[in-house]
Specification:
The chain is an alpha/beta fold. The protein is 25% helix and 34% strand. The protein has nine helices and 20 strands. Strands 7-6-5-11-13-17 form a six-stranded mixed sheet. It has a five-stranded antiparallel sheet with strand order 1-2-3-19-20. A hairpin with a 5-residue loop joins strand 15 and strand 16. The radius of gyration is 37 Å and the shape is elongated.
């Protein structure tokens, strides 16, 4: 008879097997835990770095003025808490300001609290390209206050207004002789050149110019220019010469009215530029452009110029000049013989800061001592917007070094070794 032996597994064997299993599984479990932790840490690090990139882009795209404003920075860094902005004088350039921005945010899947610090430190200035460009008349406004001059027309028109209803040389007359009438021609006039721009970037802009003469309570106005522009913001070139009315220098003012302009959509460094350019004083300045190296004239180019001129008198004057005749002036000179009368530049009905609008001019003269003097008087509303035309040839831009720290917790260790991201940004003189 056969006997069956049915032996089971002892508890000791089970424990030994379990111990072996745990020993074999421990590295795998440990590796799995490490992998999960690494993944979470990587996600947190990626969230932190992504946020640092967002901060850097915001700092580069905002204007310097906005970065100094706590309210605007808080709007710019939407989602941040406890945003604070402070400025301090730059160590190397005390006239410039460094900017510090601090705040808190929550990042990652666990919404971990992080603190950040941004420093924008002024470094240097560098030259950029000039802004006198787009000389296409369909891209820039060329406003004539020289050859299309209305001075003489306005003089006669206002004289007519003054004489209306008055008789001359009869009983009860106001004027008994020609000399009395001529006395009306001895009064100065105010001449205001009003340049107006309206529109926006989406629908385009319109530039117009009105010249208004006022004398003895009488006023007359002319509009020598009006044009629409669909291809961006036009530069304004005002071709200017001093006014002469009743053989006297006019009291000139140039007004810029931007009240109808919407600046929505303008970039931080985009603005409207106006140039007041006094033209050549005599035809010789033009004729000299046609001289060859031996002193003779390039007749082909000279004749081409003449065919493009409408005024026969102007053609003859230029021909006489080329033939050595006495100088012919491009402008009418007053009896004082002084072309250097003052010009007041005013802001019009819209006061626009220099980050949006600038006026450049070449209205200067040399005094008896050889010193260069400006003819411009700047109204308070536009004083900070007016510059010599030399400043338009090169724009000066500031460079800021930007450092960003982002660290977990309520505070930031701003040691240079702990910087999360750094770069540079430009900041224009317009800011």
């Amino acid at each position: 008879m056969m006997r069956k032996y049915n032996k089971g597994v002892t508890l000791v064997e089970v424990l030994i097997a379990l111990a072996v299993f745990l020993i074999l599984m421990l590295p795998l479990v440990s590796s799995l835990i490490t992998s999960v932790k690494t993944t979470d840490s990587g996600k947190e690090l990626q969230s932190r770095n992504d946020f640092a990139e967002v901060l850097m882009e915001n700092v580069k795209n905002a204007s310097i003025n906005d970065l100094k404003d706590s309210t605007k920075v808080s709007q710019l860094l939407d989602g941040s808490e406890n945003v604070s902005v402070s400025t301090s004088s730059n160590a190397a350039h005390p006239e410039e300001k460094d900017i510090t921005i601090t705040g808190n945010t929550y990042l990652g899947t666990k919404k971990t609290k992080y603190s950040y610090k941004i420093e924008a430190v002024y470094d240097q200035k560098t030259n950029a390209y000039g802004i006198m460009d787009d000389l296409d008349p369909y891209k820039s406004a060329f406003v004539p206050v020289t050859f299309s001059n209305y001075d003489e027309v306005a003089t006669e028109a206002i004289l007519t207004q003054k004489l209306e209803g008055k008789s001359i040389g009869t009983g009860g007359t106001v004027f008994s002789k020609k000399d009395d009438v001529n006395s009306l021609r001895k009064v100065k006039a105010d001449r205001e050149v009003n340049v107006k721009m309206t529109g926006n970037k989406s629908s385009g802009f319109e530039v117009s110019c009105t010249i208004t003469y006022t004398e003895s309570g009488k006023t007359i106005a002319y509009e020598p220019y009006r044009q629409s522009f669909k291809n961006g913001v036009p530069n304004i070139y005002l071709m200017y010469n001093a006014g002469v009315y009743n053989d006297l220098d006019t009291n000139d003012s140039i007004k810029f009215d931007l009240s109808g302009v919407s600046f929505s959509g303008f970039g931080d460094k985009e603005r409207i530029n106006a140039f007041i350019i006094r033209t050549s004083e005599n035809y010789a300045d033009i004729i000299d452009n046609f001289k060859k190296s031996d002193g003779t004239y390039d007749n082909a180019r000279f004749n081409e110029l003449k065919t493009k001129l409408i005024s026969e008198k102007l053609k003859n004057d230029i021909s006489n000049e080329a033939n050595g005749s006495s100088s012919k002036k491009l402008y009418k000179k007053s009896s004082s013989g002084n072309r250097n009368n003052k010009v007041t530049i005013v802001g019009g009905s819209s006061t626009v800061s220099k980050d949006r609008f600038r006026v450049y001019h070449n209205l200067f003269y040399t005094d008896a001592s050889g010193n260069l003097k400006s003819l411009v008087t700047k109204d308070a509303s536009i004083a900070n917007n007016v510059y010599s035309i030399d400043n338009a040839h090169e724009e000066v831009w500031s460079i800021y070094n930007v450092k960003i720290w982002i660290q977990e917790g309520d505070s930031v260790n701003d040691d240079d070794k702990m910087v999360t991201l750094q770069g540079t940004r430009g900041g224009g003189e317009i800011e």
